[in-house]
Amino acid sequence: MYSLLIDSSIIVIFIIFCISLFLLSKAADYLVDNAVKLSQIWGLPEIIIGATIVSLGTTLPELSASISSALKGNDSFALGNAVGSIITNTSLILGIGALFGKIPVGEKSSQKFNLLVTTVFLLIFTTLPYKVQNEGSYIPQWVGFIYLMLVMVYIVYLIIQEKNRVSISKKNKSGIQVNKNTRSVFMIIFSIFISALVIAVSASSLVNSAEILARRIGISDVIIASTLVAFGTSVPELSTCISAAKRNHGGLVIGNIMGANILNILLVVGASAALIPGGIAVTEEFYRIHFTTLAIVLSVFGFFAYNSKINEISKREGMILILIYILYLFINFL
């Protein structure tokens, strides 16, 4: 695929980049939907399904793209994608959501926000011992394995949270009627296999086209990963956020986005670092732009969340979050 793309025009490469993003997001959604159906057929509790398949499925596009780039030796792409997705989700997605409806900040979303801040601190501080003055640093492979172990801890936390929530309405086992015949099971498994195949191919194509696009434009592939790829993988969250905010279900959205942000660090960065013997290289660019913007976005969002008299992100605050994202784009492409 790389050899075919390298001789193509920049327009063709950009079209392939966009198609790859679209297929990656759609295939990830399709895989999660079918995995949930299969889990229900096999009798898995809804608590387990929600805390594992659905939660992990939200980061599937970022995870597949980052793993694909890590296997190709492009470790900075993986980190840029993860950090860029958190910035995009917290500033742009929630900011736009606030313009269309209510984004309430309750106790549960505050708990997840605190977990996210802790995870971000963990990410940045694990790189500091290896930082050399004005040069970059790296995330060692062993840290990647620790992040992956923390994913399991986070899943247990989600299961406990879900258990407390569902215990009130135990009588409603499952509102979905599931067809349990053999043909149906076979078709679901086949659909999961095809979805996984599309994810693998589109993720590889996405990384290849992004790398070549970055070279042609004359910018680093970290910028492509943290802006275009991060935005593309966040588009499903954007449509969900707008729809939920209009229907006054913004609380669900903010919880899901904070959860996805946490997994972007623990799972996406963790898996990428664990796959590379030398770990993930953290260039000086991350400290100057990406980590700094991430800290600003979380600080501003935290200030809005904890100082709100109406316990929600207002339209004015949503506009400020969007402006921070626009400034982030401007600095990247400056």
UniProtKB/TrEMBL annotation:
Q: Where in the cell is it found?
A: Membrane
Q: Which UniProt keywords apply?
A: Membrane, Transmembrane, Transmembrane helix
Q: Name one GO biological process term.
A: intracellular calcium ion homeostasis
What is the protein named? Cation:H+ antiporter
The UniProt entry lists the main location of this chain as membrane
Provide the topology term for how it sits in the membrane. Answer: Multi-pass membrane protein
Q: What organism, scientifically named, is this protein from?
A: Alkalibaculum bacchi
Q: Which InterPro entries match?
A: K/Na/Ca-exchanger, NaCa_Exmemb, NCX_ion-bd_dom_sf
Enumerate the GO terms in the molecular function aspect. calcium channel activity; calcium, potassium:sodium antiporter activity
- Specify the taxonomic lineage: Bacteria, Bacillati, Bacillota, Clostridia, Eubacteriales
Query: Which Gene Ontology cellular component annotation is one that this UniProt entry carries?
Result: plasma membrane
- The superkingdom listed in its UniProt entry is Bacteria
Membrane-spanning segments: 6-24, 36-57, 77-101, 113-130, 142-160, 181-203, 223-245, 257-280, 286-306, 318-333
Domain Sodium/calcium exchanger membrane region, by residue range, is 14-160, 189-333
